[in-house]
Write a structure and sequence with these properties.
- This protein has 624 residues and is α+β, with helices and mostly antiparallel strands.
- It is 41% helix and 24% strand.
- A hairpin with a 2-residue loop joins strand 8 and strand 9.
- It is elongated, with a radius of gyration of 47 Å.
């Protein structure tokens, strides 16, 4: 029996199918998720548990037995995936917002789907198999059943058509059979007129007729089996006597049967067409209803969000865990949270002071060892010469793409991604007048003047001094919202290439600075900042062009320095590829132009230095 609900028919089997699944088991999910705490601590790993419509978090898995640090009911919450960050999603309940981030996109989808199922269970909006379920934009199982029934009707129609063909063939065979009978009977009726003439054309037919009617001179007894005639081997005397005179009536019946079957097929085809049209009409109606419901839900969400914003602005409620408030005369930060933030900042300053003192004492107590005995020296020597050869290679062959050009400066890149992050190798060539190669590389390498030209550094520390020309740096870069703060730990080596080396060529002198990421026990990667992985080389060659007149000293007007800058930087974190490439295209040309102009202006009043420049103090902590 079928039930009618507003022009939508629900079959009994649909109702039975729903009865088998009255309730669906809600998923329970738990795992480690990064949660935004505040500006001081940023993102912190927390152990999350989603169970019975409630999402709770703990500092770690070992603390689950001691009570949660916070919980939120997801039955009335709203889940909002982030528009740019593919691994982040926000859980909002009234004025409370949790900013969450998973390690992978698949984990994010698992959490979002599980929360949505708990929320729908709380609203009583379970998915059912009937057509009137509008929680999905796809067709329900009833539509699938209708499609199956339509397919079965078409198959039955094809079977009927096949049976009709078989019947027509059978009727054609019978028609030929009775035609032969009719022709034989006609021959029997005309046998008297043709008997004396012995017409050979009808002789066999006459014989058959005489034999059938009178027993003939064939010598057959009346009890003998009916005779079969050679010309019509399938015709017997009984058939002739019984059916021979009715051939014309059978033809009419056959035509009537054909017309009847054709009418049935036409009617069935029309029924199938009407059912298809009705099904298509129901499908379109269902899609319109689903689209109308979706628009209403979106409008309701927008109104709810707008109402929440207005309420928050009116009541000045703190958005717990959000990175959207700061100090001011109308600050919404609570006293306890304000005190915690200030105390954390003061503790951090004390830790930095202790760290600087520990470095100073370590450098005073450790005697300087030859550079060749340092564990990093083989790596420094090998990588420096490799980067020198890499810088000397050309940019031909179509591998490099020119992405910036300004005067003598040209910048090339090769698009490369590792684990979804942009690590495009970069190569820049440039030439400037008025400064030597040594002056260029010294200002690029020396920590004394780095803050004068590098505005991206917040603070810098020399962790170790391998030799007078090799230092280990820890640089903390300024945070550019909304990206996370980054730091870099690397060794930096400066040297002059011997004049006999093939890389020197016709140049007056050649200098190189090579930087490469490393590890150091005094600066472990504790996760507070995203650590950048880098390999950078800065090669400069001095040319005396034009040469001064014989006997005249070299002036800065005679100095031409050719620069080759190569870098491979992995920024880490979750920065989008398109954003990183746009930033590189904008900032790298500005950096190289600003730095070279700074060195030319800084060196202009000083004597020309082809060598001999040194740093003032390497055992200090610099702050921008």
């Amino acid at each position: 029996m079928a039930e009618d609900y507003g022009c939508v028919m629900l079959s009994d089997e649909d109702s039975e199918e729903d009865a088998h699944f009255p309730h669906r088991q809600l998923p329970e999910l738990q795992g480690t998720v990064s949660k935004w705490t505040n500006y001081i601590h940023g993102w912190q790993n927390r152990y999350m548990i989603l169970k019975d419509g409630t999402m709770s978090y703990y500092r770690n898995h070992n603390e689950t037995a001691f009570g949660c640090r916070g919980s939120i009911s997801v039955k009335k919450a709203h889940v909002k995936p982030h528009e740019i960050d593919e691994c982040r999603f926000d859980v909002c309940l009234n004025d409370c917002v949790w900013y969450l981030r998973t390690a992978t996109e698949e984990e994010k989808h698992q959490w979002v789907d599980a929360i949505e199922q708990h929320r729908l269970e709380g609203d009583g909006l379970r998915r059912h198999g009937s057509t009137i379920s509008l929680t999905s934009n796809t067709l329900s199982t009833t539509s699938g059943s209708s499609a199956k029934r339509t397919k079965g009707l078409r198959e039955k129609l094809s079977e009927i058509d096949t049976y009709r063909d078989i019947l027509i063939k059978q009727m054609d065979a019978l028609q030929s059979y009775f035609d032969a009978c009719s022709e034989t009977v006609k021959g029997m009726k005309n046998s008297e007129a043709t008997c004396n003439g012995h017409d050979p054309e009808h002789e066999s037919g006459v014989e058959a007729a005489v034999a059938a009617v009178e027993g003939g001179p064939t010598g057959e007894s009346p009890q003998a089996p009916p005779r079969r005639f050679p010309a019509y081997s399938h015709i017997t005397t009984d058939t002739l006597q019984k059916h021979g005179a009715y051939a014309m009536d059978f033809r009419g019946e056959a035509l009537t049967f054909k017309a009847t079957t054709a009418g049935i097929l036409t009617t069935l085809s029309h029924c199938v067409e009407v059912m298809n049209q009705r099904e298509e009409s129901f499908r379109r109606r269902l899609e319109r209803e689903a689209e109308r419901r979706r628009r209403l839900e979106e409008k309701l969400k927008q109104m709810a969000a707008q109402n929440a914003q207005e309420t928050a602005a009116a009541r000045r409620v703190v958005v717990m865990g959000g990175p959207d408030y700061e100090e001011g005369p109308h600050s919404v930060i609570g006293e306890d949270e304000f005190f915690d933030a200030v105390e954390s900042a003061l503790d951090k300053m004390d830790e930095e002071e202790e760290f600087r003192e520990r470095l100073r004492q370590k450098q005073l107590s450790t005697p300087q060892q030859p550079a060749a005995t340092h564990p990093l020296w083989p790596e420094i020597e090998k990588l420096t010469m490799e980067q020198l050869g890499y810088a000397q290679q050309g940019v031909e062959g179509g591998v490099w793409q020119l992405f910036a050009e300004e005067g003598e400066m040209k910048m090339y890149r090769r698009e490369l991604e590792e684990d979804g992050l942009v690590v495009d190798p970069l190569k820049a060539v440039h030439q400037v007048r008025g400064a030597t190669a040594h002056e260029m590389v010294h200002h690029f390498w020396s920590p004394d003047v780095r803050f004068e030209w590098d505005t991206s550094i917040e603070q810098m520390t020399v962790l170790d001094r391998i030799s007078s020309d090799t230092l280990i740096f820890l640089q903390l870069h300024k945070r550019v919202w909304p990206t996370a703060q980054r730091d870099a730990l690397f060794w930096s080596h400066i040297r002059q290439i011997p004049s006999s080396h093939p890389a020197n060529g016709p140049a007056h002198d050649t200098w190189i600075v090579c930087n490469h990421s490393t590890e150091h026990p005094d600066a472990p990667n504790d996760g507070k900042c995203v650590r950048v992985d880098l390999t950078v080389c800065f090669v400069c060659q001095t040319f005396i062009d034009p040469p001064p007149p014989e006997g005249d000293p070299i002036t800065r007007d005679n100095l031409l320095t050719k620069i080759t800058y190569c870098s491979v930087v992995n920024p880490g974190g979750w920065a989008p590829a398109s954003v990183l490439r746009a930033v590189y295209k904008r900032e790298y040309p500005k950096f190289l132009k600003r730095f070279t102009q700074y060195v030319v202006e800084k060196s202009a009043p000083q004597p020309i230095a082809f060598s001999g420049l040194t740093i003032k103090d390497h055992s200090k902590h610099w702050r921008g």
